Amino acid sequence: MDYGRMLTGKRAFITTGARGIGKEIALLFAKHGAVAAVGGRNLPKLRETEAQLKEFSPDSKGYGLDLSDLEEVKAVCRQLIRDFGGIDILVNTVGINRHGPIHACDEEWLETMIDTNYKCGLLCAKELLPGMMERKWGNIINISSIHGTMTMPGFGIYAGTKGAVNATARAMALDYAGDGIRVNNISPGLIMSDNMLDEIHTYPEGEEREQFMEMLRNMQPLSPGKMEDIANAALFLASDMSSYITGQTIMVDGGASIRAH
């Protein structure tokens, strides 16, 4: 194995790559030789990512995509097959949340969370799996969440969608092992992602923000994670370094999941 270019010749689709963790994964994949296709709703940021990807992998491309629109998800997957002849590595990165107890959640938001966090990944897999099966090689990686395994008050629907992602991946790993396809999950804990930084800046500078930051620092034994920590785990699962791993959920959480509260 060439440890400097572990994904040479592979075609990867990272479902959200305009910014954040998805962008970090796409850039690392491109640096390791993959053609990286990325989706995203933020078109200016998507074009910036596309230009950065092309510096490492000239055939990489961005696709405007709203992952809550399931018809749009299917259409983009079919376009990927036309543009690249197929996708070898699918990374489902999307996750949206609104805090609150289930009785306070309106039905429209419930459906949006289920469609975005769970069903869109299933549809991407449904569209792209036949090609993987034909080629007898494929890799699906879901960016899940620590909330899919353990959670806290106010995360009922989000935790449910991520738990469903984890459970479905285990079943898919069994269904497609004979076709040379592996399916795994990465469950991040606290990651200082673009979205997390956005949330931090909703707190006024001063004591209120510092109290929030202190809470974040105390959530896990290690320091809060970086986006590259998730990208590194994704590269490991996407490459042949993990060729004997399937159906697993890898906690990349700084030890939060082993800490007794």
Describe this structure in words.
There is one protein chain. The protein has 261 residues and is an alpha/beta fold. It has two domains: 11-189 and 226-254, Rossmann fold; 192-224, no CATH class. It contains eight helices and seven strands; from the N terminus they run E-H-E-H-E-H-E-H-E-H-E-H-H-H-E. It has a seven-stranded parallel beta sheet with strand order 3-2-1-4-5-6-7, with helices on both faces. Strand 5, helix 5 (156-176) and strand 6 form a beta-alpha-beta unit. Helix 1 (20-31) crosses helix 8 and helix 4 (107-135) runs parallel beside helix 5 (156-176). The longest helix is centred in the middle third of the chain and has 29 residues, at 107-135. It is globular and about 55 Å long.
